[in-house]
């Protein structure tokens, strides 16, 4: 009876298998710190001055555009609006550049479309993208997040991080482990979330902003209910700092990448890791889900090995 009871209560973890479909070796000359994905492209940024655009609709993932000299000292963050029409990139020299798509090519362009102040956070779109409101000092503009329509941009300094912005909320993670959720309409702090006592390096809202994931130097991913502010789960499995988080389009799975060189896929329903890829021993700085091909999901990773790797689910569900 006791054995039967244990078996009935045991959690059965259903794993998922992803296969490497392609790797762009030496995509950049230095570490790739950030990637952004559209329905047809992956845009990458590194310690070198160029931003590169590769096609994800062609079998060889060919280079379709090279934005030469975009950031003289390199670029540490990219963010793209959900409609795929606006990119913001932040460089190590302190510059913020804005890009829009015109006839399948990315060009620098923009205008002051608006600004909202939320606590200590500045949200704005600027015409030439050459400076921010604080005087354009290196490190003053670190993490970036664009609204879904590309009309608003959120930024923080090096002692804080915003990786996610939607129509209702803005979230920031900080060096002291604090995670703060702001209401965009009221401009007020909605939640101050506990659970991480070490620097936070990545935060991400689920689609619809029902859930929030945060991770960093604590080597765990904390999962919160946004409406109540309650921490509902911890995901453990990375052996080093976690640098990047990304939700799939349905909110069923969360993708993470870390300093341990591992990319992990987490099932929200199962509260467990269902896939791990560790093809490199070097840090993974950025991970992103790719558009679905049929029923099969895929994702891309990039990091200190200077390459971009692409994975696809082995079998559709």
Question: What attributes characterize this protein structure?
Answer:
4-stranded antiparallel β-sheet
Shape annotation: globular
Major beta sheet summary:
4 strands, antiparallel
- Tell me the distance between the termini: 35 Å
Q: Roughly how much helix do the residues carry, as a percent range?
A: under 10%
In terms of per-residue confidence, which ranges show pLDDT below 50 for 5 or more consecutive residues? Answer: 1-11, 110-122, 124-136
Number of helices: 1
Can you count the beta strands? Answer: 28
Structure description:
The structure is a single chain. The chain is mainly beta and 317 residues long. It contains 1 helix and 28 strands.
Entry summary:
This protein is mostly beta strands and 317 residues long. It has one helix spanning 2-9, and strands spanning 18-24, 32-37, 41-46, 51-55, 63-67, 75-80, 86-91, 96-102, 105-108, 115-118, 121-124, 144-146, 153-155, 160-165, 169-174, 179-183, 188-193, 200-205, 211-216, 220-225, 231-236, 242-247, 253-258, 263-267, 272-277, 284-293, 296-303, 308-313.
């Amino acid at each position: 009876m006791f054995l039967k009871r244990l078996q009935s209560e045991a959690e059965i973890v259903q794993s998922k298998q992803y296969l490497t479909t392609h790797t762009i070796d030496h995509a950049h000359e230095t570490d790739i710190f950030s990637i952004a994905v559209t329905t047809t492209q992956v845009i990458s940024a590194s310690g070198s001055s160029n931003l590169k655009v590769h096609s994800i609709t062609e079998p060889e993932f060919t280079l379709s555009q090279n934005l030469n000299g975009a950031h003289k000292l390199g670029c540490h963050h990219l963010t793209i609006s959900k409609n795929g029409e606006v990119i913001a990139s932040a460089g190590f020299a302190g510059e913020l550049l804005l890009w829009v798509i015109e006839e399948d090519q990315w060009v620098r362009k923009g205008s002051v479309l608006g600004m909202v102040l939320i606590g200590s956070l500045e949200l704005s779109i600027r015409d030439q993208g050459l400076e921010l409101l604080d005087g354009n000092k290196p490190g003053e503009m670190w993490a970036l997040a664009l609204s879904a329509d590309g009309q608003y941009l959120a930024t923080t300094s090096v002692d804080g991080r915003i990786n996610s912005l939607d129509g209702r909320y803005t979230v920031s993670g900080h060096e002291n482990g604090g995670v703060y959720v702001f209401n965009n309409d009221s401009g007020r702090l909605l939640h101050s979330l506990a659970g991480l006592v070490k620097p936070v390096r990545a935060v991400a809202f689920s689609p619809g902003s029902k859930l929030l994931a945060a991770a960093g130097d604590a080597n765990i991913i904390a999962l919160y209910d946004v409406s109540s502010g309650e921490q509902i789960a911890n995901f453990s499995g990375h052996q080093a700092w976690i640098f990047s988080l990304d939700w799939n389009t349905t909110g069923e799975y969360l993708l993470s990448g870390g300093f341990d060189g591992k990319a992990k896929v987490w099932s929200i329903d199962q509260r467990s890791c269902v896939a791990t890829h560790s093809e490199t021993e070097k840090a993974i700085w950025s991970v992103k889900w790719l558009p679905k091909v049929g029923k099969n999901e895929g994702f891309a990773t990039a990091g200190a090995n200077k390459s971009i790797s692409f994975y696809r689910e082995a079998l559709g569900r």
